[in-house]
Amino acid sequence: MSMADNNRYTVGISEHDQPGKLRRLIRFTTASWRLNLAGAMEFRLSFLLTVGTMMVNNIVWIIFWDMYFQRFSVLNGWTMQDVMMMWAAAAGGFGIMSIFFGNATRLASLIVTGQLDVYLAQPKPVLLNVLISRMSVSAIGDLLFAIFIFLAFGNVTLLGTIKFTAALLLSALIFIFFCVITGCLSFWLGNTEGLSFQLYNALLTFATYPTGIFKGFGRLVLFTVIPAGFISSMPVSLIREIDLNFLFGAVGMASALCVGGILIFYKGLRRYTSGNMIGLRR
Amino acid sequence: MISFSKPAKYIFIGKITLRSQLAYVVDFVIRSLFLLLILYIFMQLWQTTFAGEGTTAINGYTFKQMMWYLVFTESMVLATPSLCTRIEEEVKSGDVAFKLIRPVSFLAFHYVEYMSEVAIRFVINLLLGSTIAFLMVGSLPVGAGLAWLPLMAFGGFTVNFMLGMLVALSAFWVEETRGLEFVYNKILFTVGGMLMPLELFPDKLQQIGHWLPFQTIVYFPARTAVGMHHGEIAGMLAVQWLWAALIGLVVWFAYRKGVRKLNVNGG
Fold first, then answer.
1. Chain-chain contact of B47 with A75 (C-beta, under 8 angstroms)
2. Is the ipTM of this complex over 0.95?
């Protein structure tokens, strides 16, 4: 190899004249999302059917609640409007996680089957790289459903939009990092696919029922071990009117899960034992 | 055309399925934990609702009956395997070719397999659900209604198989059928009365629900088991089997038409 060749390669991998670290990360993340979406759109009919089906799934639940509220006008202070916004916050947060960080729910399986190897060999932050490498097509239906519900039944003012966006982001952060933490259990406990799935399923299920129906120990669990209460309370404690105690609690829980999730993942990664699977990422 | 003669071979298919299902009982019990979660949530929901109404019965259902109604409906729905996943995989992988050349009826084979699988799963779900309901709300009075549950559930699962197979057979025409199954399941959840009895529906929807086959799947068995409207059992059984026969006929025609259209690659 000649000196000229050497120089050319050195310039290629040098950080000189390259955008800053943060901008490079953003560029990498958006490129990953773009490619995921392009892959999903390859089969247009299947894509539209999957998205549509998920919207129908959520609409059916709204129909159930509509039937309920036609028979019983109020549920412990909750109205139909609150339940719809609860579904919007939960489906939207879940949608953001599954569209943009689709591997969050598959972390346990990736760890157990040694599929992290391929990410470890790449010069990108491992957790971010793992999370953004997959996109759930059906979850696009969830996010569209959340936006549709907000536009049709929400308070579409500047303040209302800010509050709804904040609810979506907090909900998404809780979903993502709760799943990361439960998935990381595999680093210590071996195959926890079943347990991680049950915990994630519990969060998702509890997040779609009004917090007002839970009392005592059940309510305590929903604001600690399975923090679904912070998602399902959004309609009454953030969107309808801001309850500062709740807001601080939700921000605190989201931040704790976020920091805890990242720390636990990298601590667990030290214990990770690679598989012998040969993988290739295009 | 493959005849239904020699029923012994179908009995053997059922026995083999039962044995293979029994090998995975522990796995199924772990997966059934979701049933406990959903029953806990619904207990909280209906407890709050009954407290809000300040009455001991809503549309004839007491709190205890409502909870046991949900035990039966949820146990049945969660016991149902996905026919679409099965048929779709058979068509996509080409395995359907082997099923079609066997000296057994394709539809009868799947029916026997489905019913054997459902039998084990339903019993497990019922044991789990009954334990949690017993601990939470106390026992369901053992009455004539409960005695009719096995027969009613048998009819309900048969109608569910027919409707599920009708959706699954669309795999002979289109590649993706799971979306359709998803929508069908959601109809069962609502109009079918899985989430709440039809009596609690708004009047118009209640009338529509009574003209559809979905009520026969979980609503009829659960309603009978909790002791509602004993006088209507004979009528309910007649409606259930009428729908089973009608949909069965449509399934038969769809299968005959579909199997001529089917192109199998690989296998």
1. no
2. no
